[in-house]
Amino acid sequence: MIIRPHLHWFRMLLAWRGSVLPQLLPRLFLIFCISIIAVAAYDHLLPISLNLNTTAPFSLIGIALAVFLGFRNNASYDRWWEARKLWGQLLNESRSLTRQALTLPTSQLQKEDLKDFTAALSALPHALRHQLRTSDPREDLAARLPPALFDRVMASRYKPTTLMLYLGEWVQRHAKAGAIDSMAVIAIDRNLNGISDVIGGCERIVSTPLPFAYSVMIHRTVYFFCASLPFGLVGSIGIFTPVFAVFVAYTFMAHEAIASQIEEPFGTDDNDLALNMLSVVIEDAMRDLLGEPAVQLPKPEAEDYVLD
After folding, report:
1. CA 201 to CA 194: how far, in whole Å?
2. Can you name the residues that pair with 2 across neighbouring β-strands?
3. Which among 28, 114, 148, 206 counts the fewest CB atoms within 10 Å?
């Protein structure tokens, strides 16, 4: 994900990184070439024109397309925002569980016992991130988990839930030993259930994309509209057709490209969620409660960017 501070209005016009313009350039160039063909055909071959002022079907397609693109963007943004709220909930639940592990036991826990609990909890966001991105979690988990638990987690298919099971077993073990009373067990279990809700919510977003037929319909309509647009403009604006056709095509194609990126918010595109950064922030919040040194946050690749 790319996060930039608020830019001056002129710098915003020239912003490159973080926009979808780089990936659209080949498509916009194709529209530019079609526009040149439309101008050449109108001036030198035969007057081919679809006058937008009088051709109702062409105008209706543009209006309908704008409505559908707006709906598509709203649906994609809802998925992106729900994913961000779920990771915010994961931060809250992790803080609460760390506080409960520090304050609720009726007797002093061994340092190693508390370390095992916080290690599993701090590894959970990283395990969830790798599961959502279908990447290899070995390096991140090996740096945070004791060897026995690491082997157990790596042998499982759903690593975040295995860590959840271990946390539940940790609570059960200390409840049987009398270190945690029944009311504290209920409180801790409520937060563990909250983390289960987060994992399930993220899995729901990943496994349920927007209907493919709906995306294909919008995609085809966008490109048909943009490819035929120069022939509708050439009769009224002549040689300026390439400029306006490319600008209108950029508007429609950019909306579709942005919606396509944020539809899957857990990926690694420029506008997806910064899961690496969020995982480190959750771990750092826990270390702060434990009085441990801060986690070194990833450094931005450029002065005014945060990339993740």
Report:
1. 10
2. 307
3. 148
| Domain ranges within the chain, ordered by starting residue | 2-307
Bridge partners for 306 per DSSP: 3
CA distances from 143 to 112, 150, 158, 188, 195 (A): 16, 9, 19, 26, 22
Query: What is the rounded distance in angstroms from the CA atom of residue 105 to the CA atom of residue 173?
Result: 12
Q: How many Cβ atoms from other residues are within 10 Å of residue 25's Cβ?
A: 10
Q: Indicate the helix (H) or strand (E) that contains 298.
A: none
Smallest Cα–Cα separation from 253: which of 274, 269, 229?
A: 229
Q: Are 117 and 146 in contact (CB under 8 A)?
A: no
Say what the pLDDT of residue 54 is. Answer: 45
Give the CA distances from residue 207 to residues 78, 263, 301, in Å, rounded to whole numbers and listed in that order: 15, 12, 32
At 191, list the tokens.
Answer: 């937060």
Separation between Cα atoms, residue 166 and residue 286, nearest integer Å: 18
d(CA 180, CA 188): 10
Residues of the chain with pLDDT below 50 are: 52-54, 301-304
Given a contact cutoff of 8 angstroms between Cβ atoms, the answer to whether 93 and 117 are in contact is no
- What are the two backbone dihedrals, phi and then psi, of residue 307, each rounded to the nearest 5 degrees? -105, 140
From 131, 124, 248, 246, select the one nearest 192 (Cα to Cα). 124
The whole-number pLDDT of residue 3 equals 61
How many other CB atoms are there within 10 angstroms of residue 177's CB atom?
12
Residue 45's identity, in one-letter code, is L
CA distances from 100 to 5, 156, 180 (A): 36, 27, 10
Integer Cα distance of 200 and 274 in angstroms: 19
Compute the distance between CA of residue 36 and CA of residue 24 in angstroms, rounded to an integer: 18
Q: Return the structure tokens found at 259.
A: 């919606």
Q: Whole-angstrom Cα distance, residue 121 to residue 296?
A: 18
d(CA 179, CA 104): 9
Q: How far apart are CA 300 and CA 293, in angstroms?
A: 21
